[in-house]
Amino acid sequence: QKKADTRRLFVSDAEREKTALAKYDGVISGYPGSGTAILSQLNKAGVLLDQRAWDKAVTEFRSVLATPLAANDLDVKGRALEGVGFALEGKKDLKGALASFTDLSKTKAPTFSLLGHYHRARVLLAQGKKDDAKAELLAARKTLEKERLLVAKVSTGSINPFKWLSRAIDDALRRIDPKAVPATVIPGGMPGQGGTFTPEMLKELLRSKGLEGKLPGAPGK
């Protein structure tokens, strides 16, 4: 395995994080003001977030947000805004986290905008505002459906760039109101694999196995 994977090994997460921070600081000081330095600072902030160094992470993320790169690159801006929100949430500043996630929801990049709404819903729920969280998720779900249709029109493949986010939004909605999200039905899907049997699908399966009408509680003829 080591011959195939030449990445450096570390004996602990702490050692890996310490090394990463040193490397990022080296790039930041060696190439001040460059795009590479700003991206290194963004990654440094991510490491600080992993270390739960909330205040330091907020400082680094906000420093990135103040750069020309963040002003012109939606990915950098989105990642930095999300990072600020995570760090403030980590230090229990839910009001500040909500404000950052609100800014994230207003970005022009659909993925980050939807992420902002999802994170807003999480924070609202943590604040005990269940109805507001539900409304946020329902609005995000409606927007998500529009984005899916748009992607389907311009893409010949089956890749869904919102797959994870779609599941996260639906899962959060189900926790608030199980009836808010219809069951996902995937032809041939099996329980535990993201699929749900309709009564008709179950009847057909039982018929194919010669078990129709023979199992208690299962659909009959």
How do the strands and helices of this protein lay out in sequence?
Blueprint: H1 13-30, H2 35-50, H3 54-65, H4 68-72, H5 74-90, H6 94-105, H7 110-126, H8 130-154, H9 163-176, H10 199-208
Helix pairs in contact: 1-2, 2-3, 2-5, 3-5, 5-6, 5-7, 6-7, 7-8, 7-9, 8-9
Question: Care to describe what's here?
Answer:
The protein has 221 residues and is mainly alpha-helical. It contains 10 helices and no strands. Helix 1 (13-30) packs antiparallel against helix 2, helix 5 packs antiparallel against helix 6 (94-105) and helix 8 (130-154) runs antiparallel to helix 9.
Q: What is the arithmetic mean of pLDDT?
A: 84
What is the number of helices? 10
Q: Count the strands?
A: 0
Strand content: under 5%
- Structural class of the helix and strand makeup? mainly alpha
Query: How much is the radius of gyration in Å?
Result: 23 Å
Q: Percent helix among the residues? A: 55-70%
Q: What pattern of helices and strands is seen along the backbone?
A: HHHHHHHHHH
Largest sheet: none
Instruction: Give the distance, in angstroms, between the N- and C-terminal Cα atoms.
Output: 55 Å
- Low-pLDDT regions: 185-197
Q: Sum up the overall morphology in one term.
A: globular
